[in-house]
Amino acid sequence: MTQNKRIYAITGGIGCGKSAVSAMIRGEGYPVFSCDGIYAELTASGGRLVALLEREFCGVTAADGSLDRSTMSDIVFNNDEARRKLDAMTHPIIMDELMARAKSAEGGLAFCEVPLLFENGFEKLFDGVIVVMRSLEERIKSVSARSGLNREQILARIHSQCDYSALDLKSCYTIYNDGDMEQLHEKVKKILQNIAKLT
């Protein structure tokens, strides 16, 4: 939990609309920070994770000095031990940077987009959690449109993640992304109003 500032996590499975919700919260004037964004910074050319991962996995540095994310993904996708090693090396660094940025942001509220929140027990770090939910078919459609992956590949990624429908989410703010963008925005604004009342 945090002091003097309330920090909320935004999470949900692949294709649920976390990034859309984050963009809407940012559009309402609140600071929003992203684990994926920080990972991208730390694995860009000169980023402090590149040398660390190169020492451990060998051959994962691209010609421009950045992390070759395609090679890294190939190494860990079907290798649980390698994935656990990658997560153990990167998650603490990413989360430390994420929380430092959130705590130093202006205002009394900050938000953090955290894809693997419940899988890693990170929910304990936050004052509250916003979970974005969406039907399976809509998730598949969304991921297919942006990635070019086929249905089987997308389902493999979905099934490798947390099953949010099996969690007890009573203490969370849950957004059902089951309409158009305008409807989603209205749901986001309602949750922000409820959160603002607590500050």
Features:
5 strands; 199 residues; Rossmann fold; alpha/beta; 50% helix; 12% strand
Describe the model.
By secondary structure, this protein is α/β, with parallel strands linked by helices. The protein folds into two domains: about 1-30 and about 110-199, P-loop containing nucleotide triphosphate hydrolases (Rossmann fold); about 45-105, no CATH class. It contains eight helices and five strands; from the N terminus they run E-H-E-H-H-H-H-E-E-H-H-E-H. It has helices spanning about 20-25, 35-40, 50-55, 70-75, 80-105, 135-145, 150-160, 180-195; strands spanning about 5-10, 30-35, 110-115, 130-135, 175. The protein has a five-stranded parallel β-sheet, sandwiched between helices. The chain is globular, with a radius of gyration of 17 Å. The two termini are about 15 Å apart. The mean pLDDT is about 90.
Instruction: Assess the beta-strand content as a share of residues.
Output: 5-15%
Count of structural domains: 2
Compute the number of strand runs. 5
What is the end-to-end distance? 14 Å
The dominant shape is globular
Mean pLDDT figure: 92
Oligomer: single chain
Structural class by sheet pairing and helices: alpha/beta
What is the second-level CATH architecture of the largest domain? 3-Layer(aba) Sandwich
- Main CATH class of the largest domain: Alpha Beta
Helix amount, in percent? 40-55%
Provide a count of the helices.
8
